[in-house]
Design a protein that fits this description.
The chain is an alpha+beta fold. α5 (about 130-145) crosses α6 (about 150-160), α9 packs across α10 (about 290-305) and α11 (about 330-340) crosses α12. The N and C termini lie far apart (about 45 Å). The chain binds adenosine monophosphate. In the C-terminal section; belongs to the purine/pyrimidine phosphoribosyltransferase family.
């Protein structure tokens, strides 16, 4: 089970937390569209509302009014193809001898089965096969013997993998980020309280101020009266393993993650894409929406270099079509690209065109788009991608399809160019990403672009001691 989600936690002085939680889940909707949920506590008891569907559909005004208390957590869950699964909707709640727990989790544990088996032998009964429930039970068990901070530390020492958590222990809201900081989590200040959220855009939505990122290995405990918070560095990380793909695709461009504004990162990656593999053409088109910031950086760098390449919004997106990526069949995914994107003929006809997207996964979008642009009269279509080739699955919380579905899984860049019928194809290098994020490769999780992971995953290599050959980032020009 992979949990790819958005989490939030709020403590307020003297106001119900349900509405601000609801608004912040709206701000995090892009991180999960399968289910949405809120758990609150009013000092006496826990209240919970968790439902399948988008945030706007999962709650009606009555549901929010019934969620009492000025402390609470929320969650949006990301779907994977074919797994519409009500039992995995969150926040996950458990009651135990000395209180109640609610948990929202973004990430994926690599040793959940092992801990789950041990807890089951001790008599814990599980209602799902999700790793969030394993964390909840482990923490509940530790809370029977230890105070809150020590109990969290014990759980952190036991669970391995990626996790950004917001937790409610009775009415106290906590935030925990795994020692490698794989998934984002930040803390912000509101006029009358504090908020923890996967992305700072959720804090902005509440008119709050971002204070900072929660540090890898850190626990943040919000005061239940909304007046402050305490922090504890429970695990000292040697290396981080921040997910670079949050910056490339997953996070909102208006969020700041690990001190970088995502929009500016994408623009800089676009600039570097021009520097590494710029190609002269009449016009540059972003693939909306994800390619937009990359394309504006790319076009700006080209123009700075004296190129008279034109930047145009030549592809229109139908905003009412949902995500094509998770559609179960290839046929449906292909049809959906056509439903979703339509070219503006006047910007394309008779021209050589460069399209810029953040990533190629299965290759469906680029293949369909190139056909579309050629049908609309483009003379040449060049493709530039703001990330390296995706060669391996993600085990840490992002749905990347299985290895044999990935177009770069077993093919060179040249072979991919041929398959998608582009006139040229180049990807961005890993170094450009590390440079832009001002970090070293060893502090990033690059599993999906190297096939080497910063965690021990059965059957996979770890990047802490193995080096694999690179497939490169650029194709040779198309033969006509
Ligand atoms: P594909 O059509 O399979 O090559 O997927 C690439 C397109 O999907 C690009 O336009 C990306 O913006 C988008 N994309 C990349 N990764 C993901 C993901 N994990 N989930 C959903 N969409 C994605």
């Amino acid at each position: 089970m992979h949990e790819k989600c958005g989490v939030v936690g709020i403590s307020l002085e003297d106001r119900d937390a349900a509405r601000p939680l609801y608004y912040s889940l709206y701000a995090l909707q892009h991180r999960g569209q399968e289910s949405a949920g809120i758990v609150t506590h009013d000092g006496f008891q826990q209240y919970s509302h968790v439902e399948m569907g988008l945030v706007g559909d999962a709650f009606d005004p009555g549901d929010l009014e019934a969620l009492n208390g000025s402390n609470g957590i929320g969650h949006v869950r990301y779907p994977t193809a074919g797994s519409v699964n009500a039992c995995c909707a969150q926040p996950f709640s458990v009651s135990f001898k000395s209180g109640s727990l609610g948990l929202s989790h973004n990430g994926n544990l690599v040793n959940a089965d092992e801990i789950g088996d041990e807890l089951a032998d001790l008599g814990h009964a599980f209602t799902s096969d999700g790793d969030t429930e394993v964390i909840a039970h482990d923490l509940a068990r530790n809370l029977l013997e230890e105070d809150l901070v020590r109990a969290v530390k014990r759980t952190m020492n036991r669970i391995h993998g990626s996790y950004s958590l917001t937790i409610m222990h009775d009415e106290t809201v906590l935030g925990v980020r795994d020692p490698q900081g794989n998934r984002p989590l930040c803390i912000g200040e509101l006029e009358d309280g504090y908020v923890l959220a996967s992305e700072s855009a959720a804090i902005d939505t509440l008119d709050g101020e971002l204070i900072r990122d929660v540090k890898p290995g850190e626990l943040v405990v919000l005061h239940a009266d909304g007046t402050g918070y305490d922090t504890y560095q429970l695990v000292e990380p040697e290396n981080t393993a921040h997910c670079f793909f949050e910056h490339v695709y997953f996070a909102r461009p208006d969020s700041t993650i690990d001190e970088n504004l995502v929009y500016e990162v994408r623009r800089e990656l676009g600039r570097k894409l021009w520097e590494e593999s710029g190609v002269e053409s009449d016009v540059v088109l972003p693939v909306p929406d994800s390619g937009r910031a990359f394309a504006s950086g790319y076009a700006e760098a080209a123009q700075d270099d004296g190129s008279d390449i034109e930047f145009a919004e030549g592809l229109m997106k139908n905003r009412y079509v949902g995500r094509t990526f998770i559609m179960p069949t290839q046929d449906e995914r292909e049809r959906a690209v056509r439903l979703k994107l339509n070219p503006i003929k006047s910007t394309i006809e008779g021209k050589s065109v460069t399209i810029i997207d953040d990533s190629i996964v299965r290759g469906t979008t680029s293949t369909q788009l190139i056909k579309l642009l050629k049908d609309a009269g483009a003379e040449e279509v060049h493709v530039r991608i703001g990330a390296p080739p995706i060669v391996a699955p993600c085990y840490m919380g992002i749905d990347m399809a299985s290895r044999d579905e990935l177009i770069a899984g077993n093919q060179s860049v040249d072979e991919i160019r041929e398959e998608i019928e582009a006139d040229s194809l180049s990807y961005l290098s890993i170094d450009a990403i590390a440079e832009t994020l001002e970090t070293s490769r060893t502090d990033l999780c690059l599993g999906c672009v190297t096939g080497e992971y910063p965690y021990d995953i059965e059957g996979e290599a770890t990047d802490r001691d193995v080096a694999r050959p690179d497939i490169g980032t650029q194709s040779s020009p198309a033969d006509d």
